[in-house]
TrEMBL record:
Superkingdom, taxonomy of origin: Bacteria
Entries under SUPFAM superfamilies matching the protein: GAF domain-like (SSF55781), PYP-like sensor domain (PAS domain) (SSF55785)
Protein name from the UniProt record: PAS fold-4 domain-containing protein
Gene3D superfamilies: PAS domain (3.30.450.20)
InterPro entries in the cross-refs: PAS-like_dom_sf, PAS_4
Length: 286
């Protein structure tokens, strides 16, 4: 198997978490025949670069941070699209004498590609370094470009996944009535409020359809029309009622529906939040 074939095999291997970046960097190191490869991003601390993932073909090294100023990475963020690539073929330590991590690694050459969002703003960059000189080839340049695009997609997916997990935890721990309903009208996340109102455990509620929980008539007449509007992209507020079977009277609710999008911009479900207005409803009836 050639280096490019092995690199492509590493990239297409299924991986949906942070391990993808290690595989991607190993593939980049193989294609460029360099010892070190890294995925870096600007830190929130100012002119600091954070190494998200670092690949050393000879040793395992943890990620670290370094000053952007005075490092070869400073040049990559000065480029303007469509110029996204930079190469220092040799003499790296002479060119950047005030970059301690370059000296510590003993790197002599550097090559990098900026990673851009859809709006062409930088997410970060990928780089390779070696103790020997580097030469740029069409194969390595194209692989850099393809990998930068793929990492942008995977990194955004990772951020959205983390954000969704935070939302799930927020929903699960709130005392209010909050839930996430998928395209099949099934509850995927429910709050403590649902457990109290329906007098059921979380495990018995998750995976249950809206029709099963509320009854077919309530689902068809009151809940499904609202969910369907949200699934078409509408954010809406409405008043409706539910009637848990163990209660004598229905509960009147003010409900907010918000469509939830995946990293491809597709709607994958609806986040529903509600608060009780039963007392207000009865007061209006008097």
């Amino acid at each position: 198997m050639t280096d490019i074939e092995e690199a492509l095999a590493l990239l297409v291997a299924p991986c949906t978490d942070e391990r993808f970046f290690q595989r991607a960097l190993k593939a980049l190191a193989l294609v460029t025949q360099c010892r070190w490869a890294a995925f870096c991003r600007p830190s929130h601390k100012g002119k600091i670069i954070e190494i998200v993932a670092f690949c050393d073909l000879q040793h395992n090294l943890p990620g670290f941070e370094f000053d952007l100023q005075g490092s070869p990475c400073e040049s990559i963020y000065q480029l303007k699209y469509p110029n996204c690539h930079i190469l220092y073929p040799d003499g790296l330590q002479r060119t950047f004498p005030n970059s301690p991590w370059i000296k510590k690694l003993g790197a002599n050459s550097y090559q990098a590609e900026i990673i851009l969002n859809e709006d062409k703003t930088p997410i970060g960059h990928i780089l390779v370094m070696d103790t020997l000189s580097q030469t740029e080839t069409m194969k390595s340049r194209e692989f850099f470009r393809l990998l930068a695009h793929r990492i942008a997609v995977e990194y955004n997916r990772l951020l959205i996944s983390r954000e969704m997990e935070v939302h799930k935890q927020m929903i699960a721990h709130t005392e209010q009535l909050m839930s996430f309903v998928d395209l099949n009208y099934q509850y995927r996340v429910i709050s403590k409020g649902y457990k109290k109102v329906f007098n059921r455990t979380a495990s018995s509620l998750i995976g249950t359809s809206v029709a099963e929980l509320h009854g077919k008539d309530v689902f068809v007449d009151h809940l499904k029309p609202l969910i369907d509007r949200a699934l078409k992209g509408e954010t809406l507020t409405a008043q409706t009622k539910i009637h848990p079977p163990h209660l004598c009277e229905p509960i009147y609710l003010n409900i907010h529906h918000n469509p939830h999008y995946d990293d491809q911009g597709e709607i994958v479900g609806v986040i529903i939040s509600a608060h009780k207005i039963t007392d207000l409803h009865h007061a209006k009836e008097r």
